[in-house]
Every structure is written in structure tokens, then in C-alpha cells.
User: Fold Putative damage-specific DNA binding protein from Trypanosoma theileri.
Amino acid sequence: MPFVVSTSKSPTAVLGMVTGFFLGNDEKIVLLNRLNKISLFKEKNQSLEHLGDFPLFASLKFVEALPFFDSKGIGRHVAFLFSVKQEVSIVAFKQERGGRVELITLFYGGVDFCYGQQKIGEAYLCSSGVYRTQGDDLIPIVVLSIHCGSFFVFDAASAIASYSRNSKNASQTLGNIFPLEYTQRVFKKQKRVEYFLQGQFHASEVDVRRITIGRAESEKSLVPLFVLYSDSLGKTHVSEYSIDMGKSDDQRRGERMQNYSWISDASSVFPAENVFRRKGVLLANVETNACLLHVVSEGLFVIGVQLITFISRKSVFTPTPTVPSKNVTTLSFPSFSTYIEPVCCVSLPNKELLVCFWDGTYVKATLKEEVDGIGSTKLVLLNVVVSSLCTIPDSLAVLGEYCVVGSPMANTLWMKWRTGESGILVNHCGPVFDMTVAVDGPRMSVIASTGVGPNGGLSLVRSAVNVRHDVSIGNISDVKRISVSGKVIIFTFPGYSRICHCLTEECTKIEELLETPFDTLNETLALAWSSKSNKFYQVTTIGLKVVSGNEGNYLIKDDVKRIEHAQESHGLLIFSSSRIVFICNLNEPFTKPTLQLENEVSCLLVFSSNSFLIGEWGSSAVCLYEIHEGVVYLKGKFICSATPYSMCVLPHLEKPRLLIGLINGNIVDLALEDISLECSYHEVLLMTQPLQLFNLESHNSVLCLGEVPLIIILSDTGFQLTGIDFNDVSACAIIRSDAQLLPRYIFFSKGERALVFGTIVDLKKLNMNFHAFNATVTRVKYISWWNIFVLSLRRNEKDQIFTMMGHEITNSCVTRDEQNLIELLENERCVFIEPLVLGGSNERYELNHPDDKGVILIGTTFAFPDEQLSRSSRFMWYSVEQGRLTSERLQLRQDGSKDVEGALQCCCVVPNYTGRIALGINGCVSIYSWNSVDSTFVAEETLRVGTIVVRLVPLFQEGLSSIVAFDNRHSCFFLQVDTIQGNLSIVARDSELRGVMDGVVSQSDKRHDMCFGDDHFNFFSVYHDIAPSQGSSDTQSKMMMRRKLKTKAQYHLGDLITVMQQGSFAPCSVMNDIVPIPNNLIPGVCASQIVFGTSYGAFGTITPITNETYLFLKAFEVSVSAVTPNLGGFTHTNFREVLSVGQERGHSRNASFDDKNPKSAAILQERRKRYLSKCVCDADLIEKFLTLPRDVQTRVTSEAELFIKLCFASIKSSLEEFLDQTDLDHFSTSSNASLLNKSSDINGINTIFSERGLPCLPLTVEDVNAFIHNLERTH
Assistant:
């Protein structure tokens, strides 16, 4: 089945940063690499100001700042970008008059001499520097090492000059960025110079750890390159190379063949005029664990775990480099309690060196000049002050008085390097390690383990706002309405009211008033307070009562005609009885003008001191009235599709927006000023019940009351939907207080029979409620049988097992009870947590509470530092016991354990096989059975399937016992268990070698779809047809079963998936039996959604859809991609091609080779088809349609409609076969236009689309906007 992939939360990791004068002025900018985008910040008014984000169709590996300055210092920095797909881009930034920053692409290309894709996890190295030309201009270069034993030198000026030859506006673009004279002198002369040069490291440099380019030498065109490496004996040295960038093309071509890196002293056979020359070992036998090199104007720092070594620039190469020199100084770091590696360093403006270690500790080193009587030398002195930061640093950059500390594992911080004061610049939840789903009626909550070490904990991720609970009152039923004014709260029940007094200064206190002048014998509809008259106005079902002090009397009273609606705002009180509307201005002498209507009032709304809206029964009209000098005038009117049930007006930008809830569950959205009989409005189905809206005024959003309460958040393109902490909210009110920054709300949950007093925090579409455990949570599992969470905490020596109740996950803090901690043995690590019924039938996981045989299975493995793979493991089963007191938590009691040889990884039950479980041990799947006599598990059958089995998924199918095994090297396997003989066999497997990180299985009526993410940022789906029933013949069964798993969908996500689960972030899951609204929102959803988390802190949703829905969305993806600027030269089509080790890169992708040999060209083209994106839509790109200008939307809609027509005209057999065999990203509408003659009309297409609930042709912008809005609400 096809899929649509949506990003619910973008990655927030920072993978690197650089500083420079990117805007061409004296203002320094810091550029952050945030994987799929780059962010710019500058120092302003003693803080860091965010200038903008630039999303890219790439996953960036490196960023560098390249200076282009002439001899007078005039110029700017440009940014060098290098992606994981080995793409190179150079971009510049230009600030417009309005302050907006524009990105300009100066170069885009690949590494020409790299013919194949390297592994993402390899130790790529990168460094940038400059060389001086004969005219004293500084030309930047970049040295890249993406191969073991070799490196590439990238000449940025030559690259820009070469790239500009293919652009008509190149001269104008360069002229807008650089001075004209500089452009003519530098870029014009570089046109015939190659911009990629390849060199080889010396054969003795076995493990190259770090490279860095030194300061430009006095000799023109020469660049020093320092290399930190270890040799074959494990000793660490620093060598120096010289790169001559003044060579001509002819010289370089003549010398390229002279490369003999396998000769032990290769530098001696190079000609003297070679481009690359190894001078020799600059410093031998540095610290064994040295890992950093840093160049300063005075020399070179070599930084290790214990020592910091400084090599003065006055040092010269000698034939005996092992002899100590007075120009080399080594001092030790302060001793640390544990082994901590330095990860990054930066030079401070006061000539100090700031070194950060992995745990956040940082040390400052200072250069000081000492005189020894003969001459002066530079020495390294360490400051005695050692401080730490609450992050895991990876990169550093200095920006004025600030130092930015980047981290891919934790928050990115700003720090004042003089004082050490710090704060959060980019909030990052950390990598996602595990994920579990808790089902609450029609809604799901996703609980993810995020963060590393002290930053670790649990994150409740869901489309629901967080409510900070102040007071909760239980055992209350039938609250119909809540009215609040001042310190008086009136709770309306069927037939009567209860009056309470509320204090909210320090803490919330509520006291019921038994003796009160308010009417308690009738239902209260509204309560208002007039500060001018110092009186309360209570509207009940029988009239209007005025309360002053301890006295109250009715000004308007009618026991016959019941009052149905009332509201007060801005001093204007309006209430209605049938067709009569009463209007009272509380700030003026009491008057009661009335309004007689033709139809009965269905709802009313006051939104200003002289304006109100009325909804009518029968006519389904909404009327806008204004009051002038006591006279009511009708100012506007429009007709809805159903009777209006509730209304809200929200300020948004310069135009107030009117939201109307209809009796049929739809919501109407339009601008208030557009109300007229001919006005157009947007209408969306939200619920299958009348839509009751409540205005969350201070948050500029609306709460939809009901069984599944939703919150509507207005946006520029419409509105977004999210949920709230609890279900079945039937009443709500606001407690206004001048002392509180955030107003407090009262919610009544009908299902939970509780009144909740609290404050709304983090009102956004997707919210994360983080619970800190100050440790890495490696595994988390929600077990609905007991409503508990079981998680493992990673400690230095061993793991701990911790349990917490389900309701605690929504609390602001979780108290850790030592009685609920289970200490594992030393070096024992938890690998899985699974619920199990001992000896159960395994027909499927029981939904109800199990009997006394229900246990929790916890698998562990013993990990030692000197072992790559564990040799021994065990799994234990725990029963769940209730504490002695009802307030105590559930506790785990160990009932038994079983030792296992090998590295235990995962576990699942064996479907339809009584008492059996399957364990993933190394690359094997083992079947264990429960022996009730001995109360232990016994091994039965073992089958080797791969290298390391990372997950086992049981498939519950009647009459069959099947398991899917995911392997970290051999993709996935479809296994079948013979429940009669006990045999375990492979019936289907994926023929491709893919390193699976995690996976799930989506089951439909005809087949199983195995969805997984691999270790190269890709998403794949392979399928296996559901086996025939046992009544079919054996021959037919074997023919259908024994085959390879076919790839149905593939897609490059651009981020590393670490965990996947079937679930949903949406406020209401798209597949549920209680509230069927999401199926109406997105037609064509054919299976449960899949949620995933990544190593860089992103969360996303994968939604299975039908072929027709996929074609519709794909047409808009292709059309929107055509009008979306490709920032940096990175294109959407290339970005979504799957990434695989060894696929063609560099010259092997050059189209000029295709013309020389047609046969080889066909082979190469067929090989490239393996990597094309297939049967997956990019929802993030499709949703950009909503932000396009109206004329562009119209053009995109026309292109998408033509695309759909041509696709249907090209179908020869079935739509599914057409989608499998066609590259829709390169499907040309111009070359296939002749096919339209085969389709005389669009009735056939519309018939198919109407059956699937899709918009029919011809498409309109309004229909497309509505459809894409609904797409947004599914994630």
C-alpha cells in the first residue's frame, strides 16, 4: 500500500556551527546546522536574535564558513554545505531592506572523484582554510576526507566560477554579493581551474582522527594541512602536509598518476612540483587518546583526554622529530573521576582556548609569553577554574560576548564566556530510544524515552495541550454549565444552581455558599458583574435577577416563557426567549430594548459593546446586529448549511475571525467583515454531534466540547486541531484574575465525573510533556492490564527497572519510590519489556485484565567493555502485586528467570501456539515453551535468520502462526511455525541487505506490509500476501508462500529512525471504532497510522492510504515541488531517492557518459531506478500549498489536474501496477500530452474519486485547500 509521511515535530539537534560575516557587513553571524535546515543568529541588545531558518532538501553533514576577502579586507563569508549524500553546496546570504534574509546559491555539485556512496556512520573529516594568491587575495579551500586513506581538496573560487558559466544571471548575482573588481580578478581567472583535487594520506597513517588546515604561509598559494593519526602500533602522531594551490590544470593532470600510497615512504617518489607534499611528522608520540587539533595564530594545539600540547609556530621540521623541542609545551588537565573525552574547542577573543568535554565540563587554557634570557617562547597555562554546562556539547562558536554550545544530544546553549552565565538557545529533547502507545478511548498518547544521561527522561508526545492541574474535585455529575464573574462561581445542574466563592491569590480555594441572594432554584444561564453599579446580574431560565450585597430581585421575570440563551461581554448583556431578544447595557442606566425575530434563536454571541450575532432555527441564518443610540440595526446576514449551535469571534492579525459550530458537527470559518448573503466560507466536519464552542480568549483559540474535546488553533492558512488532557468535557469557564499572568480555567469532565481547576500551558498543535529521570531511559512499555508503565533506567554500572502508574504520566513531576526500583546485576542491561500470560493461548493479546497468570517479561543481557556482543543473557518474569494501601503503587515481584547463551535482543509471543514465546538471540529466533510443572521456560526450536535480530512481530491470523523478524543487516524475514511438529521455517525474505533500526507490520485483508527504517535514513515497505486458509491445497500454499518479499514503497526520510510503533499523534486516531471523524477527514486511509522517532529528536507519522488517494496527493507533490525554490541547489526529487552504500556518485552519475555506450547507459539507468522514491508522498511539501499565493495555487491546481488525467490515460492494466512501474517524480506532462486523446471525458476519473471521497475534476482551489487542511489534522 502507498503511504504519506508527515513530520509532526522537526529535528532540533544542532550538528555543527560556524561564525562569519555572512551579510557582508561588520555584523558577525552564527550559522547552525540543524540537519534539514540552517538557522542564523546574531548578537543584538545583549541577547541572540534569530534571523531566520532555511529548510533544505538535504541532510547536512558539515558546514563551514568560507571567507572571500581582498587585500583591503573587503568581502564576506559564504557557507559551505556538505550533505550525507556527498553533495556540495556554497550559499551566500543577503539582507533585504525589510530585514528579511535571502539565501543565494553560488554552487551545487558532487564530489567528482568519489564514485560511490560511503556509509553515513563512517568518520568523515572536514576542515576549511585559506590560501593567499599572488594579488594578496584570500581564497578559501575545504579539505574533505570521506574515504579511508584519501582526502579531497575543494577550491571554492574555482567551483563558483565554473558553476556561474551555466547561469545567465551569474554575473549579476556575483556583482550583488562581491565588489565588481574582486569578481573580475578572482572568479573570472578561476574558470579553467579544477575545483576538486584528490590526495592520499601516508601509508603509515592507519587511523586518521582529525585534520585541520593551518594559517596561510608567507609563501603564496601554499596551505599547510595538519593530520592527527595513529599508526599500526597504536601510537599517536601529528604530521604536516603542504598543498600547493598555485598549480595550473596542465600540471595537475600530468601529476595525477603519481600516487603510490602503498609505498612506506611515498613522499620521496613524488616530484618536487607535486600538488600535495608530506613534510613529515611534526610531533611524534603525543597522548595516545589525543582527539582534537586546533590552529591559532601562534601555533597548533593537540588536545587529548589528559594532556594539552601546544606547538609554537616557530617549530621547524627536523630529521629527528622525537627529540623534545623548547617550542613544544605539554600540561595536564585537572583530574576527572571518570574517562571523559574532549569533543570541541574554540579560541576566545582574549586569547584563551575553551575546551569542552563530553559531559559538559569545560576548561580554559591561556597562552602566556615567557622570556628565558635568549628569546621568548609561548607556554600553555591552565586556569584553575573548571566549570560545567547542562548539555552534551559537540561544537562551539564565539559570537561577540557569547559562546554558542551546540549539541546533537541535548539543548544548544548560549554562554557568556566571560562570566559563565548560560541559557537555552535551541530546545532539544534528545534522541528517541523507545516508544510506547497508551490508548484512551478514541485517542492515543505516545510516550517516548528521550534524552541522554542527566537530560534523559520520558516525553508524553501528543496532539493535546497540557493543563497544569491546581485543584481537582471528583464524584460530581450532571454539570450543565459553569458561570464565573469576579469571585463568584455558579454551577448549573438540571433544574437548579449551586453558588460558590472562589479565591485564587496564593492557592485555589472553593467554598459553597449555602445562604445566598442568588437564585439557586433555577438553572443559571449567565452571570455578569457591573463595576459601575457594583451589582451582579444573574440570568436564569425564568428571567434576569440583580444581586447587590445580600439582596436580590428580578428585573425581568417570566415563569411561562423559558429563557434559553444568554451571554455578557464588554458590558453588553443579551438573553433570549424563543423569538424575543432582550438587550441590556450594564454600563448605562438600565434599559431593556427588545428585538422580535421571525425565527427562534439557536445561539447568540456578544463580541463588542455594541455588536452581537444571533443564529436562527429554521432559516439556518447568522445575523450581525449593531446598536446605535438604543436602536438595533441589522448589518449583515448569511446562511449556513445547518442550524448554528454556538459561535466564537477570535482576533487574528488585522481581521477578526468568526467560528460557528453547527448542529450537524461542522464548523464554519470566515472573516467577520465578510458576513453577507453572497459571502464564501470554509466548512469542515469535526464531530458527529452538535458542535459546542468555548472561547479560550487569552490563548486565541477555541475549545470544542464533547466526548473527544478538540482545541482549534487559528493559523494564517486556516486552523489546526489539537486535543486536551482529559476526555468528555461538557462544560468550561474562565476565572479571570489581574494577579495571574495566565487565566485559570474550570473544566468539567463528564466521563471522569470531575471538576478540574487549572492553567493551559504550551498551547500548540503537538505538545511534549517531559518528565526528567536524570538518566537515559532505554526501554519503556505501557501495560494496559494494570495501567502501569515499566521502564529501564541506564546507570553507569547497571540498569534499574522502574514502574509508574498510568495517571502519573500527566503529572508535572513523578516521585520516584525506591520500593519500585528493581536493581539488576552489575553490567546487566535491559533489552526488552513485554506482557505475557504464562501458558496462554496466544490467540492475541488479551484486552481485559488477565488472571493470576499475567506477568511482565523482562529480558536482559550482560555487556562488558571488551565485548562487542554479549555472550550471556537472561529473561525474568515478574508478577504484579497491589501495595498494602490503596494509595501505594503496584509492585513487581520476581517469580523466576531463565539463562540464555548469546546476546538477547527482543521477544514476542508465538501466535496461536499455546504457551510459546519467541526470542531474538544474536541472529537467531528461538522458540521457548512454558512448562507449568517446573514453572519455567524450556527451549524447543532455534533458527538462524540473520546477524542481529532487532525486533520480532507476531501476526495474529486465524489458523496460522507467523512471525516477522527484523534484522540489522539482512532486512526482514517472514517466519512460520508448524504448531503440530514445532518446526520454525523461513517462508519469505527480503532479498536486499538493509540494516533495520526498527519496524512494524501493517495488516490488510490481502497482505502484510512490513514497514521499517534502515540505518541510512530510509523508509521501506515490503509486503507478503496473506497465506491461504488451511483448507487449501499444499501446492497452492507453497506457491503463494515461498517467495521473496517485494518492495512496495521506499523513501529517504533524511533522518535516522530509531523506533516505530502503530499509533497516532492526532487528537483522535484515524482508525477507531468510537469516533469515526478522521475517516471523514482523510478519505482513503486504509490502515492504522505509524508513529516514529529519530536520533535527532524528530517525530513523524506514516499514514497508509489507497492508490487513488496516493495518486491525488502525488500530483500535488510534484506540482508544488515545481514552484518551490531549491535552496542551495538541493532538489526534492534527489533528496527523496533512497540512500545506499555503493550507489553511483560523482562522475559515475555524469550524463555525458550515457551517450558513448548505449548499452552501458541502459544498464546504468536501470540501476538508478533501484533508488527512486516509490509509493510515498511527502506531506510536508504538499502542505506548503496552503502558503502559496492565490495565483500560484491556481496554477499548481491546474498542473495537478493535468497530471492526474495523464496518469489515468497511461494506465494499461491496473492503477496499482502503474504506480509500481512508473517514476511519477519524472513523469512529464508535456511528453505525455498526446495520451489525453484516449480519454474523451473525466467521468471515469470522477467516478473513482467520488467512491474514495476525493475531490472531483475539475479541481478548485477551495476543494484542494480543504483537503490539505484535513491532511494537516492527521498528525
